[in-house]
Amino acid sequence: MKEWFKYEFGYVNIDSENLYLTNSGNWSEIIDLQEQTKQITHENDRKSSLTLGFIIVVVCFFGFLLYKNYIAGKVGILLIAVTVGLGYKMYAYLKTEIGAKFKIPLVKITNITEIGQNVEISFINGDGDSVVYKLHRIDKRGIGLMRLLKKP
């Protein structure tokens, strides 16, 4: 079995042994993934913070330029709308880079809870701790796949 689906911040790949959280959904990306540990969580949080920081810096820079030129009377409403639209598109493009990258052995999944379009996965991580990870905005196909993984 090799399946995949998209969630808000990336992709979930599933094979017969593991569930993988990736940024691209590409199967070649799963080769180097490790189980979630404190170190992996720290690396994922650092990468997410840098990506969000980049987005915030770019938005602030363009916001400052727009404000400065708006005060000077050089900017119209159309340019502001286009800039906001492009900012949203940049966020939509980069948001998969915010998602975590690790694998969860299927045998270590203790519970899967479906809450609308969201799913909470309870599992034992690589450090032996019980962890809950939330997947937001999963499509219908993904919800169906997660239901198949639920323990009876």
Using the 3D structure, state the CATH architecture of the largest domain: Roll
User: Strand sequence of the main sheet, in spatial order?
Assistant: 1-2-3-4
Largest sheet: 4 strands, antiparallel
Q: CATH first level of the largest domain: which class? A: Mainly Beta
Question: What percent strand?
Answer: 25-35%
Q: DSSP helix count?
A: 3
Overall shape: it is elongated
- Total strands: the figure is 7
What keywords describe this structure?
152 residues; PH-domain like; 3-stranded antiparallel sheet; 3 helices; 7 strands; elongated
Briefly characterize the structure.
With 152 residues, the protein is of the alpha+beta class. It contains 3 helices and 7 strands. The strands form 2 sheets. Strands 1-2-3-4 form a 4-stranded antiparallel beta sheet, covered by helices on one side. Strands 5-6-7 form a 3-stranded antiparallel beta sheet, with helices on one face.
Chain-wise SSE layout:
Layout: E1 3-7, E2 10-14, E3 18-22, H1 38-71, H2 77-94, E4 102-105, E5 109-115, E6 118-124, E7 130-135, H3 140-149
Helix pairs in contact: 1-2
